[in-house]
Structure formats: structure tokens, C-alpha cells
């Protein structure tokens, strides 16, 4: 991912938090000579060796999985808030741009066994059911329903490299920076407001 030095995020804790809060990602690999991508939850976890990994699952009917054995190299892409930035918000002439936060994780994927896949599902469901009025638990599902879990491949990705971009108008002076935040907040667009919030964290 092309990232000028000014916009690189090299704070491990920030990246870790971002991945946990924006875990619906895009898994990309090459299968039969073609690039394939699937939109799925991909969770940051710690394995038995205390090493951070990514884990998730895809359908066995998804042809993308055919490529995992041929070439285990994959890319997982995660995106956060983003917004158009109008140059009319500056006190000088310039070009419009786009502010955004994104993380690319490069690694090697392996398919895990059925029991491990079910444990992954339990963690995933528990995470997203935490605030539910009537939370669903995998442990409470019938044997008939759980047979559907036979239709997925659980996987783990050994992380080899992380590239993180936080492009939030860091190249602007304080006056223009604060004005961008103000204009974003006026849009009433949730994405724009989220960008404004992130910008406010970066420069008080």
C-alpha cells in the first residue's frame, strides 16, 4: 500500500485497536491465476504460542479456497472512516482530497480443523452478540443447525507484515486543520463525522 511517511501509522496499539474495531475485511488471494476477494469478518486473535494472528472462515463452496493450497500468501484489507475533503475549506487555493484510515495485513493462510473452526465461531458470535437483548450462543444451537458449520473452512493467517495508513490532513496548519474538522461535522454524514472525530484525537 502506497503511504507517504507523513501518513504512516506505526503505533502497534493503535493498529491493534483499529483491527479489533474494524474487523469486517476483504480477504484477497490468487486462485487459478486470477485475483479473488471475499468480504468477511477477520478477527485479530492470539494463538497458543502468544503470537498475534488473523482468523476467520469462508464457505467451502467459495472457489477462493482452492488457491490456499497452491499459494498460501494472502492480503487482508481493513478500512475505517473516510471522507471527501473539499479544498473550499482551506484559506488558500489547493486541490480536493480524501481522508481515510486503512490497514493492510500480509501473511500466510492455513485451513484449520473442524473443532478449531467451531471454537472460532463461538468467539465470533460471542463478540457480536455481547450487546444483544437475547444473545445467541453457538453452544445452544441444535445438532441440525450445527451441521451447517460443516460447510465452512476455518482459517488462520500468520501475520508477516502490516501496513497502516492514517491520512487525516496532517499536512495542514492548525487553522485549516480545525476548519476541516468543523466542515466535516456540518455535513451530518456519519463517515465524515467519524473522520472529524479521528482528526480531533490526533491534534488537540
Automatic annotation (TrEMBL):
PANTHER family found in the cross-reference section: PROTEASE SYNTHASE AND SPORULATION PROTEIN PAI 2
Species whose genome carries this gene: Flavobacterium cutihirudinis
Origin organism lineage: Bacteria, Pseudomonadati, Bacteroidota, Flavobacteriia, Flavobacteriales
Protein name as annotated: PaiB family negative transcriptional regulator
Signal sequence coordinates: none
Pfam families recorded: FMN_bind_2
Amino acid at each position: 500500500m502506497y503511504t507517504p511517511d507523513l501518513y504512516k501509522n506505526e503505533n502497534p496499539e493503535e493498529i491493534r485497536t483499529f483491527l479489533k474495531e474494524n474487523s469486517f475485511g476483504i480477504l484477497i488471494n490468487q486462485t487459478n491465476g486470477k485475483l479473488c476477494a471475499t468480504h468477511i469478518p477477520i478477527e485479530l486473535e492470539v494463538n497458543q504460542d502468544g503470537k498475534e494472528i488473523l482468523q476467520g472462515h469462508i464457505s467451502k463452496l467459495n472457489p477462493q479456497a482452492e488457491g490456499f493450497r497452491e499459494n498460501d500468501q494472502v492480503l487482508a484489507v481493513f478500512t475505517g472512516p473516510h471522507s471527501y475533503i473539499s479544498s473550499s475549506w482551506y484559506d488558500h487555493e489547493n486541490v480536493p482530497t480524501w481522508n481515510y484510515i486503512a490497514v493492510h495485513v500480509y501473511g500466510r493462510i492455513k485451513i484449520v480443523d473442524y473443532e478449531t473452526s467451531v471454537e472460532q465461531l463461538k468467539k465470533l458470535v460471542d463478540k457480536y452478540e455481547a450487546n444483544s437483548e437475547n444473545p445467541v450462543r453457538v453452544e445452544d444451537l441444535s445438532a441440525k443447525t450445527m451441521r451447517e458449520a460443516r460447510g465452512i473452512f476455518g482459517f488462520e493467517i500468520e501475520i508477516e507484515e502490516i501496513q497502516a495508513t492514517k491520512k487525516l490532513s496532517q499536512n495542514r496548519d492548525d487553522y485549516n486543520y480545525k476548519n476541516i474538522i468543523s466542515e466535516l461535522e456540518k455535513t451530518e454524514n456519519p463517515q465524515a463525522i467519524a473522520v472529524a472525530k479521528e482528526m480531533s484525537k490526533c491534534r488537540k
